[in-house]
Amino acid sequence: MPLDRLEVSRTHKPQPPSLTSQGSDAPAHLAEEVANASYVVPRVMLATVLLNGAMGLISIITFVLCITDYDAMVVNNPSFYPYISIFQKAIGSDVGATLMTTLFILLNFCACLSVLAAASRQIFSFARDKGLPFSGWFRQVSFLRRPM
Fold it and tell me: Of 5, 20, 34, 48, whose CB neighbour count within 10 A is largest?
């Protein structure tokens, strides 16, 4: 039995919930790089929680209020992802929907870069303390003073 559009839209979410916590989690992993970390990092973590929460709430409310016809925009939409048709209906043009979708993809890409930076720093820290297999390779530092 094939999946209907609503089931597909539930399984292919544009942004996984795990990325929403990365704003406050990444500074904890990058604390070794920060001057005066005991003062700066907790404040940055609190600021990211407050800003991400406020901006996320505003985005969700705006997005939900843009859904005028649920069946046409989500269940029977012409695109594979429902948020594209919601952008198109809200803005009223294909160019605007393309720009909004591009912005959405760019923001998700930047969130993934944040996760990658935190993960690579964490791997380097574990390797420096010889806590990983092949630690000698992971803890190498290039001539540019960057971890490999």
Answer: 48
